Amino acid sequence: MTILVTGSAGHLGEALMRTLRAEGRWARGIDIKPSAFTDMVGSIGDRAFVRQAMSGVRHVIHAATLHKPHMATHGNRDFLDTNVGGTLNLFEEAAASGVSSFVFTSTTSAFGAALTPAAGEPAAWVTEDVLPVARNIYGVTKLAAEGVCELFARKSRLPVVVLRTSRFFPETDDDPDIRNRYSADNAQANELLHRRVDISDVVAAHLLALERAPAIGFGRYIVSATTPFSSGDLAELRNDAPVVVERLFPGAGALYAEHGWKMFPTLDRVYVNERARRELGWQPQYDFRFLLDCLRDRREWRSPLALDVGSKGYHDEVFVEGPYPVG
C-alpha cells in the first residue's frame, strides 16, 4: 500500500519520508525540486504528472504548498495554481484511482485576522470552531483548498482529514521586531506555549490521520503543541504573559534568565489541540513543560527528527533581511 507524499523536498515532506522509510513503509515522494527524498520530480499543477504519480497509490499526504514567505516572489496566480489547482488535480486523480484516505496539510494561518483580537480584548482562544478571516493570498488559497477537500469527501466519499498545523519551521521569524529582540531558539521556545509544534509531533499527527480517516470521513484539526493555558488565562495573557507562565511554571523565569532568554510580554492567541488529541488519539510530546525539563538538564529540546531535517528556507536566494524578502 503505497503512500504518496507531496512536497517531499520540504520540511514536512522530508520528515514524513524519513519516518515512513525508517518504518519500512512504501512511500513515494514527489516535488518540483530533486532531493534524497524525492522519487519523482514534477509539479502538482501538471495533471498528467499527478496521474502518473498516483499509480498504485492507496493513501495520499498532501504537504506541498506555496507558503506565506513566497508572497514576495510569487504572484496571486501562482498561489491559485499551486495551492488550489494542484490540490484539485490530486483529488481528482485520487478519486479516480480509488485512494483509501487523503490527508491535507493546511495551516493555522488560515484563521487570518481572527487570530488578532482588538486592542484591550483578551487573547484569542483558537479552536476549530473559530471562523477564519483570510488576511492574504496564502490564507485565501489554503482555505479554498480545504473547501476542495470537503467537497471530495462529500461528493466522492473519499475519506479526508485536514490538519491545520502551527509553526514548525526552524528558520528565524519573518517579523523583524521578533528577529531583532529574540534569538530564534528563544522565540521558538516561547511559541511552544501557544503557536508552535515540533515536526516530529506533526508527522505523528499526519500518520494517525491517515489511519483514522476512513472512520472519520471528513475532519479538520488544529495541530499545535498542547498549551498549558486555559480560557481563564486569556485576559491576563494579553496584558502580562510572563506572570501567567511563572504561576504555572514556578522558576521558569530564572531558568530562562540562565540561558539569556526572555518571555514574550504578551500573547494574542492560543491554539487549542484538544479535538486532535481526542479524535485522532494524538499525543504530542514536545511541549513547553518538556522544553523546561530539557533546559534544566541542559539537553536538546527539539526532536531528533527536527534536527535531521534542519533548516531549508523557502527561496533559492539569500536576502538581506534574513531568509525572507519581506517583513
From TrEMBL:
InterPro entries documented for this protein: Epimerase_deHydtase (IPR001509), Lipid_A_modif_metabolic_enz (IPR050177), NAD(P)-bd_dom_sf (IPR036291)
Gene3D superfamilies recorded for this chain? NAD(P)-binding Rossmann-like Domain
Task: Name the SUPFAM superfamilies on file.
Answer: NAD(P)-binding Rossmann-fold domains
Q: Looking at the record's lineage, which domain of life comes first?
A: Bacteria
NAD-dependent epimerase/dehydratase domain residues: 3-212
Q: Name one Pfam family in it.
A: Epimerase
Tell me which PANTHER family the record gives.
BIFUNCTIONAL POLYMYXIN RESISTANCE PROTEIN ARNA, BLL0593 PROTEIN
Protein name per its UniProtKB record: NAD(P)-dependent oxidoreductase
Q: Which organism is it from?
A: Rhizobium vallis
